[in-house]
# Entry
Amino acid sequence: MQNFWKNIPRYIRYVVVQTLYLFLLMVLFRVIFYLFFFKSTITSSAVITKAWYLGLKFDLRLTLILVVPIAIMAVITRNRFFTSKVIRNINRTYVFIVFTVLTLLFILDLGHYDYLGIRLDPSILRFLAKGERADNARMVWQSYPVVRGFLGIFVFLYLVFRVQRRTWNRLAAEPPVYLRNWPFTGYVTGLTLLIAAGIYGNFAYFPLRWSQAMFTRDNGVTSLGLNPILYFVSNFSVQGDTYDINLTKKYYPYIAEYLKVDKPDVEKLDYRRTVPGDSTKPKLNVILVMLESTGAAPTSMYNNPMQATPNMKRLADSGILFKNFYVPAISTAKTVFGVTTGLPDITAVKTASRHPKMLDQRIVMDQFKGYERLYLLGGNTNWANIRAVFTNNVEGINIHEEGMYKSGKADVWGISDYDLITEASEIFKASNDQKKPFVAFLQLADNHPPYTTTSGAGDFKKVTEKDIDMEKFKKSGFVSIDQFNALRYEDYNVGHLIDMARKDGYLNNTVFMFFGDHNCILNPYSFMPLPEYELATGGVHVTAFMYSPGHVAPQQVINTPGSLLDIYPTMASMVGMPYNNYTLGTNLLDSTRVNDKYVFVTYLRNQQPYYALIGDRYLYEINMVTAATALYDLQADPTKNIQAQQPDTAKNLDNLTRGFYESTRYLMFNNKK
# Structure
């Protein structure tokens, strides 16, 4: 073994040793955190072990990221790495900076956690605010052993650099190992693959994400599973998303009145509405089915010439069609966050699911007492950090994802929708057979590039241009035959779900809510009641319908605007579940809101971003770049700005629109459990 180690070029060995030193430094501070700062109500050794395992993987990732510059320098200079004075000085300076900064940040993190109970994040920069620096410095001086602390840090770093110098000198004194091209290529390839694998950090399609540390709702366990430096960087990258407390308070009265808040209070900013239960209603199973890229316009319920979704139309005709249903933004991750939390995802750069500070929310799904909670996805929940949206907010949720199914992957998005539904139905049947009601979020994905369509039960067939009326196709908005077939395949799988529910015995005691996450990209179309392609609202106008034979009367069409924020309040009311609503969603079936319901949306038109409210009659929008506003009468000329003609209506809707926007910004950070 010793000979093998000696035969490895010394510059490669230096990279390996430096990796070990960095990793041990991080492990040291993890041990300190665990022994002196870790607090948790969870005593399960399996949970603690998992947090340690994830934390060590994060530590290894950061180690390897920091080692990359050393590795690049080593393989480029090869044996000159130890003979060049310039290289030695560059390396020594880099190592000095890395170990010093890491040590200071880890110590700062421990102090931050001891003071606030959370890992280091960019909010610490507030202590450097002008006018407060002196007071904060005095607080630190009076509260902590600053002199002894810095003396301890100095001694620690001195010992570290003594070890560093000794390691360098020892390797530099050894005879060089000269490699021919192929052995050298082998070493470089192996080193690259090992570093890349360690940084990737997962035996799955998606890389290691910080959301994996949020596998419980316990702050201590989550903190143990994180690497504070990587967590800091994750937070720092989304600092552009914030809120203005003064604007929140300014527009709070308008949104509080609209939502019918129990006890409006502009100082406390209370949004709670207490909704009593109804014990006379049966405790039906609840299945939410998210239909990937399924806008209103492409489906058969909205007069699309191609009539691509007969199964959806059959179910909508047999239940309730929500004719004017919108999502707040065009993004699958934003839809999953929005429907689950009841808040629009209005983040500017990344999605809220990728924002650590937005993942602690009081949500309605968590209040389904006595219900098993399920989330089922054919792919990996590391996608967009979506796992944390559920595990951090829903007590005891059971997640089913890639790697847990019998079926093999169909494409980048995991197993096929057909296989997902088949295996999901087995899970639903098992719960139903045990007389345990469940609430499930079933997320389909195949109506999305690469448009994978399987044969299903063997009876799904793609069509070609020869099989369809191309004149109708050109008017339908579809951009390709593949896109058309993908929607047909999704509709096929909607029918498959209902067939499985009937076969497995849970159809008659389940309420299904189907909804699109956003519209697909379409060519210009003109068959919808509104010129939504021109208004740019077509992207957020999606299909939505409820189906429950024996519990939902057929042939219902609700034209009152609805939003995916309303889904969980509606489903809770459907099954008589009492709940406290802290979100911006309302009950879709609330008859008192027929004439004053508005939904909040965002969209791009001519490359300009807008946020807006859509109601039965009016659309009011605010340009997020220019601050220009406009009011449109949807029952007259929907493309004509009538703000000057109806200033009172415009003013009222301006206040409510800004109320939605500012309250959303505030609640995303302050709706914590």
Notes: Residues 176 and 396 are 58 Å apart (CA to CA). The chain has a mean pLDDT of 92. Residues 245-670 form a domain with the Alkaline Phosphatase, subunit A fold (CATH 3.40.720.10).
